[in-house]
Amino acid sequence: YGMWVLTDDDNAAAGATYRKAGGEVExxxxxxxxxxxx
Length: 38
Description:
Layout: E1 2-7, H1 12-20, E2 24-25, E3 30-35
Antiparallel strand pairs: 1-3, 2-3
């Protein structure tokens, strides 16, 4: 399982929040993703 979210490069607050939550940047515009499971 996983989830993802998109945000603009210039949205520093969102980027900081998603990084702090363990999200990994995968593409531009910033796409953060998380993987859950076994």
